[in-house]
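Q: For a teaching session next week I want to show students how multiple molecules come together into a single three-dimensional assembly. I've collected the sequence lines for a complex. Could you give me the predicted structure tokens for the whole thing so I can convert them for display?
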Amino acid sequence: MFWTEDEFIKNMRNALGWVKYSRQLNQEQMSAVLHTNGPLWVLAGPGSGKTELLIWKLFKLIFVDGVDPQTIFLTTFTEKAAKNMFNRIITYYNNLLKHGFDCIKNVDISSLKIGTLHSLCNSILVEYRYDNYHTKRLMDENESSYFFYKYVTMTKSGSQGPSDYFWEYFFEKRPYSKWQRVNYSKILLSRITEDLIDVEKLQNSDDIFMQELAEYYIQYKQSLNHRDRCDFPTVQQLFLKFLNEEEGEKFIQGDMERDLPPIKYVLVDEYQDTNPIQEEIYFRMTELISPSDCNITVVGDDDQAMYRFRGATVDSLIFFGERVKERFGKIPTKIQLKRNYRSHPAIIDWFNSYIANMPEMQIKGARAPGKERMISAKHFQENWNPIAIIEGSSLTDTAEKVAEFIQSIINFRDEKNEKIIDDPSQIVILSQSTRETSRNVGSFVESLRRRGVPVYNPRNRKIHETTEVKQLLGAYIEIIDKNNSELSENDHVLRISTRVKDFIQSCRREYQNLITSQGGIDKLLNYVSQSQLKIESAPPNKKFDATFHRIFLRLLNCPPFSEYLSDPVISPRYGIISAQIEAFNTVYSNYLVKSSTINSLKRNLLRDFYTVFCGQILNSGLNDVEDIDYPILPGRVQIVTYHQSKGLEFPIVILLGLTKQYRVGISYKLERMLSEYRKNPLQLESDELRAAQDMIRLYYVGQTRAKYCLIFADKELNKWKYSLGFDEKGEKRFSLNWLENNNIPVYR
DNA sequence: GGATGAGTTGTTTTT
DNA sequence: CAACTCATCC
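A: Of course. Below is the structure for the complete assembly, covering every listed component.
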């Protein structure tokens, strides 16, 4: 105990008065901070100061209740959010120190357990060496794909492996390629773990496909175990198992011998995006700590749930009250943060009406019980209309109009010759996908670039399309495949899809362009021709003195590639390619080593590189790396997905993709098909309804990002069913007719 | 406004 | 190959 409640509040206010993010807490926030014992359920609407509340709560626990920081377990949804929060905590703490509160200087604030649930589970399992976890390799998404491709039997062979009917049953179509089987397998099998499916129930099902699924799951798990690998869902599964055993109890209860105090508090941010296994982990921890204290705090907004595809269910937040009552016999204290410190009052008025009046959201269980509208809490001096609609005749036309609009506000000067905005990066385009294709933001990027407006789109997943990457891969291809064998039509060893073939060809072209147009690259030419010779004249059964990785590193040593390494844009791209190769190598490590015949050389060297490595790159796409400390690049209009925008705010927001019909994607179907096999089965609304609700929540997230200006842009206004609320006939589905009543201008 | 044909694309989001 | 966009024609 360092301070009393009153001292704590006074000291925090004094110390943080000038810190960028901090301001006085409002009454609801304060009551959540001062809440001491028992479950706490915070519904935090957009821009309501949720992170601020969490940080104050941590500080209150530490400085008023005297809780040891290392006994607090706080999870966030992304690594980025965890880092941000941690940095803010350190800043606040240093400010308290600067204000001369010496009594807290021995508190080790950095020992707080803050991170994503995955990262915390991972580090604790490593620390406790549970089930030899520290010897296992935790695979990322790409590695996991390679793992399936190489080690998992995905087609019927003998008694093992799923049949075509199996895939048809779960995915309604037969996979047309091995990569599709990889993708399907990942979706299906991670679902079993994350939805907390009872594998025994599956085995005992009357449905033969459910039995087959159980078998397939077991096969996969064995193969993971056998090869000492672990995937993302399995980390959580192991952690839950750990909690239910003696070692886990030690972790929770503390270990005197090792000077580890017991865990005391569980706090969860973004609780609406929690899936069943995560919910069980939080509940189990709470139970082990003390079921009678039931010290669990969850914070989130059901209206902003957007990760059902990952197995998350809003239900965990919406029914938190009932679930806690069922399990612990306690009724959580419910607090709604309804003061919005972000948006212009008219924007708040709009999104309040939007979320409350959409017919799909009025169904029971769609939103948290008793939820109230948000109230504007930030003072806005100017009285202007911050909402507008841009309607084009086609997508390209819309893009032109949006670009025109953006250009005009960038250049705009008022009577006093002052700009409206300081920097183009204050304008943000939100879209379902940041891929620069004609269906997505392609035409928008093009229209902007044509007008000389710089654009920042680091997640467009196309660095494999850049010249420098193609040149490098082209050089590699030149080495391993001098004779263009990818072109031979009737080669049964090399069966390469047209997509990959096109990619290989364009890599070759880029390499050819490079060597014909640039001088000073003798070293590269020498290395390539020497290596070609070496491969050609390789004696049978002799090991090559080269692996994919080594050839790649040698190429990087030759100009111009070696010179590219000092380029701030290209160098990180080579880093990404290098990481890809490493992931590939963890599974395909010895394929270059033993080649006895030309055919096996082709099989090992070419096919694996073409269909597996290139296939996977084309399959998943590669993003540029973003600087976590500088997520915004000044001077450029930002392009961001609705998902990425979560937790952020922007002065001017332009929403795209408004005519999109929801898709009852495979995750909705699987959620339903498997729901009866869950450990805790649940009642689900129809697939259609859940998909529609999720679509509405996605748009809600987009709308609530805007501070001063919110623009809706797309073609065919009367088809904006879920984004603005029209029906099939173009009539407004809102009883309110909000848009008309507020004279929202439409620019055509 | 709808028929036609040319052209483009390969869902999407994160640990 | 299927699904979609979009310009163009009447």
